[in-house]
Amino acid sequence: MTVILNEGDSAGTTGAASGSPVDAAPEPGKAMTRGRLVLIRFMRNKLALVGLVVIIGMYLMAFVGPLLSKWSYDQQDYSAFLEPPYADHIFGTDKIGTDMFALTMRGLQKSLIIGLLVALISTTVAAIVGAAAGYFLGVADKALMWVVDLLLVLPSFLIIAILSPWFRGKSWFLLVLMLAAFQWMITARIVRGMTLTLKEREFVKAAKFMGQPARKIIAKHIVPNMASLLIIDATINVGSAVLAETGLSYFGFGVQSPDVSLGTLIGGNAESATTFPWLFLFPAGFLVVFVLAVNWVGDGLRDALDPTSTRVRRREKKDTKEKAA
Amino acid sequence: MAGFLLRRLVNYVVLALVATFLAFTLASVTFDPIGVLQQRNPPPPAASIEAKKRDLHLDQPIPQRFVTWMGGVVQGDFGRTITDRPITDELGRRIGVSLRLFLLGITIGILFGVLLGVVSAIRQYKFSDYFATLFSFILLSTPVFVLGTLLKMGAQGVNDAVGSNVLIFVGETTPGFQGNWFEHLGDRLQHLIVPTLAIALGQIAYYSRYQRSSMLDVLGSDFLRTAQAKGLTRRRALFKHGLRTALIPMATLFAFGFGLLVVGGTFTERIFGWFGMGDWLVTGISAQDTNVTATVTLFVAVCVLFSGWLADVLYAALDPRIRVN
């Protein structure tokens, strides 16, 4: 496995570092900071920008949209069963007369929250564990590498599916923890690889010889130097977490009723997709567009934060697809 | 080299055993087959519940149950399902169904994925490259359960347009189909097209992205220029020297790809009504059947590990440095 290393992408580097040309002309009177450079690079990437707008729009829509609609998800319209979209129900209605827009928004809410939480938790854990394993090496490191190997054999989808009877009827937050518990390991492996090189760098050695304790070196010198990787990773993890959740929910192994997610909506309506396409197309459309937007933003972030990397979409990130599959 | 492959093989066998043990343990802990029995109305007599417990070895500790089950597996007996039917009877047919789908899907996926990747690398930033990129971006963001259902709707459309059932998307063969060997083959092919597409499209997108970037790395290298300088045509240099080198990092991906494929296959089998291993996993978990779940896990582990081992062989074949060490 090749690991993408952000060579020379250390904190405090100004724009001219990393051997990249400063391609945006700095405005007179304003110093070019790294933050500004990253922002300019990101803004120049049209797809990433569109993706960002779509993501923000979706979060807004998921939480504000239901307030604007006159139908609520627990309300049935007895004059409209299985109606295709029309003015009154813009996404149509299902077989008991529930407004599909209200239902889709509710599912979107849950899926988006789950995606965000899983990404935050798993990236944080990955940073800590990966850096510690790479820094200390030894038994913990061996164990980590082995667990990652094991996960390739025993896909996390399978494990969570097997465990699903256990969290049936419990809070959806358990599902978040489960998804996060299986998503951090591959990132941790990349973090570990980067820690191995970082720890030979002068500033880390200097800190060490000045008597800084290991946990401070990790927190102050190693993790901040991987910030770009971690930001990119957290972004892409939102997408893969949403895919993992919807995949499990599709079979009823994920989000359990009374909660609704995009996955349960798609799974519940996939059978009737050929006859009543609107039941399937709206939740599925939101899912695909969201994941697409996340991937574009992730790519844009990579280009902006780490110009030295080739435009590879995460060599190690087979996980995304595993859950997408 | 034989030593290297043998070491990897031993490593893989251990991993497969651990994976199966984990799945068996998790399933035994979370599943509650007796609870399902007790909820029946009228409740079954205590004696028959006791008998069922004994049948399922629930009175024994889990490691002992695993050893008993594994002992049977070694002799070709995978135990009995929860409805007391021997698993071995069904196993062969289901593996055949799944492997037909997987092998065809992955072969098409790798061939076209590599081809698409190479073409878009050679024609970088041309229209075809942008088109391939967009195509794979969208496909990578579309989970199999959405893609499969969309294909189903598409196939329905094609059938309606043609006026007969050309593309059949339910089941893997027509029940009670009469005809000679050739007609049988045609019937199977009709059933095979849409599900295989559902699997292969995602694989093509996945491999083409990596192949493109790994080919781009090679395109700029000195040895390729040297090959052309010594008189090889560009095409010959590209395929003899370039592609071979660009395929090396892909070899590891192929192994992971198979793991994803198995999970993706689960969705495909369910959507298209194929009674393969993936379908068995879902019914097994829903019925809280430990033996079935463990059997499917073992199958998945063996598949992934075999493809991992195959990747090692491929690696050794492509990269002379590994053969020497």
Automatic annotation (TrEMBL), chain A:
One of its GO terms (biological process) is peptide transport. Residues 10-20 have a biased composition (Low complexity). It is found in: Cell inner membrane; Cell membrane. This is Oligopeptide transport system permease protein OppC. Its main location: membrane. Belongs to the binding-protein-dependent transport system permease family. OppBC subfamily. Residues 112-298 form the ABC transmembrane type-1 domain. GO terms for cellular component: plasma membrane. The lineage of its organism: Bacteria, Bacillati, Actinomycetota, Actinomycetes, Pseudonocardiales. Residues 1-28 are annotated as: Disordered. The keyword Cell inner membrane applies. PANTHER family: OLIGOPEPTIDE TRANSPORT SYSTEM PERMEASE PROTEIN APPC, OLIGOPEPTIDE TRANSPORT SYSTEM PERMEASE PROTEIN OPPC. Coiled coil: none annotated. Keywords: Cell inner membrane, Cell membrane, Membrane, Peptide transport, Protein transport, Transmembrane, Transmembrane helix, Transport. It is a multi-pass membrane protein. InterPro entries: BP-dependent_transpt_permease, MetI-like, MetI-like_sf, OppC_N. The chain crosses the membrane at residues 47-68, 112-137, 144-166, 172-191, 278-298.
UniProtKB/TrEMBL annotation, chain B:
InterPro entries: BPD_transp_1_N (IPR045621), MetI-like (IPR000515), MetI-like_sf (IPR035906). It is a multi-pass membrane protein. The keyword Cell wall biogenesis/degradation does not apply. GO terms for cellular component: plasma membrane. Its main location: membrane. The chain crosses the membrane at residues 12-31, 99-119, 131-151, 189-207, 245-267, 296-318. Residues 95-311 form the ABC transmembrane type-1 domain. CDD domains: TM_PBP2. The lineage of its organism: Bacteria, Bacillati, Actinomycetota, Actinomycetes, Pseudonocardiales. GO terms for biological process: transmembrane transport. Keywords: Cell membrane, Membrane, Transmembrane, Transmembrane helix, Transport. This is Peptide/nickel transport system permease protein. The keyword Magnesium does not apply. It comes from Lentzea xinjiangensis. Belongs to the binding-protein-dependent transport system permease family.
